[in-house]
Amino acid sequence: MKLLALDTTSGACSVALYDDGRVSEQFIQAERDHTQRLLPMVDEVLAQAGLDLSDMDALAVSRGPGSFTGLRIAISCVQGLAFAADKPVVPVSSLAALAAGVRRQHPEWREAPVVAALDARMGQVYWGVYSPKAPNCSLLPEAVQNPEDVVHALRESDLPHELYGAGPGWHYPAFESAPVHAVDDAALIHARDIAELAALLWRNGVSLSAEELQPLYLRDEITWQKRQKIRSQ
């Protein structure tokens, strides 16, 4: 199985190649110039492996949630590549990828659920909780909320007592009272973790056509639900 994964979600730009369990990655921590960096990184990753886009079984990308601009850049690039090569796409949760990456970087956290949080601005975070047994599925519904509401949800949940936190969303002071053992707020999303998660999804038959690929904007979904409620009244 060969998958090419791209990400520009959380202040970094990365491309990874999954080749029958072996993963290689180009990763740059840069807030800007993602559009100029991404395709050259794709070319370099493929060239180093002696492979072409046509050799891929599928492409993988973060579907969100995350920065609107960052998501659009990676998704647009993947759609263009998938169209050109006539390949399917495997969308992966950006929060799941963040949690998988921090478990990779902290072996002592491998058996515990990770609460992944990305800054959604306006005093809110995108968040979800991911266990190693089902790394693509949040134990609580992915949401965008105020940090205080996240802390309340964690305290009221029946999640295991051993929890860890990951991601730049954890900088809010309200999280100081969160029921977690430790936090890595410097953790970023890596395409290598998207590739690993996409490989699991691909084996389970999960894929989309390039036309079907859409970013997941949790805030947009909530706004749409409110509008629908108002219209029905």
UniProtKB/TrEMBL annotation:
SUPFAM superfamilies: Actin-like ATPase domain. It comes from the Bacteria. Transmembrane segments: none annotated. Residues 30-151 form the Gcp-like domain. It holds the Pfam family TsaD. Gene3D superfamilies: 3.30.420.40. Belongs to the KAE1 / TsaD family. TsaB subfamily. This is tRNA threonylcarbamoyladenosine biosynthesis protein TsaB.
